[in-house]
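Q: Convert this sequence to structure tokens.
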Amino acid sequence: MTHLKQSSRRGFTLIELMLAMTFVALMLIAIATLIIRITKIYQKGLSMRAVNTSGRELIEDITRTVASSSNVDGDINPAANPSTGEVVIDDTLAARKKYFYQKTIEVDGKRLQVHGAFCMRDYVYVWNTPEIEKGTDDAHAPLAIGDSTLGYKIYKFARFKPHDTNYCEQLNDGNITSTNATNASGSSYKIFKLDKATSTTEVYDFLGGSKNPTRLTSNEGDESDLWIYDFKVSPAFQSPITGHAIYNFDFVIATKRGGINLTSQNDYCTGKNNPYGNEPDDEFTMSDFSYCAVNRFDFVARQGQEITDK
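A:
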């Protein structure tokens, strides 16, 4: 008679299997969490790099343009002090409005820019902020560049040769009024039209996203969707050494995604009115935070032509 020997090998018990599966699951969760965290850090880095790169490009272009301009503020000419003969730049409030214009709106007790312009003899810089997308009335009307032949486009930030050299003064004095425009869906909204020098004059679009005839919309909601949120030009002053006119520029550039809110006291990336996802206005997801980047730039540009007594 043959006897079968009982094997001494044992299988895993149910408890051991459950413990092993739990350990593997925890390991996978930890790895997935690490990958997600690294991805967010990488995306945050891309957003910051895009903001900083665009900011440097704007600084370089404005610096070159101001340096090559014979007279930044158009009709303003320096005058000599009759008692000392010293050349003094006329930068009274009446003169200042000839080279800088901004339209603001009050939000949460603070004034935020809607659009603005910096005017020189040969070029005009124009910018529109995200505030233009929050209404269709005069208060949110954007500046549009073009001509009656080819139509007008709305730009986030652009430079062009103007038809008139005193657009800033006209805008400050209210001599350029808004007109009606219609988007592709037939909806009406307001725009302020600025004519180029000619129909073939090129417009240098720095941040992309120009639209015609519709209003600006977000590109893809990623780090390339950048906007100017604030742009200021300080009163001009004169270098006591060279006699050149010197201008101080201060601007904020940031992503659209991430709920940017300049009225926030602390973190601008915790603002309201997040345009992405289905979250309420006072919330946004952590993925939005990864796309959020904001930076303020401050620089000085010197007028190129030396000022001489006339």
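Residues 40-302 form one domain.
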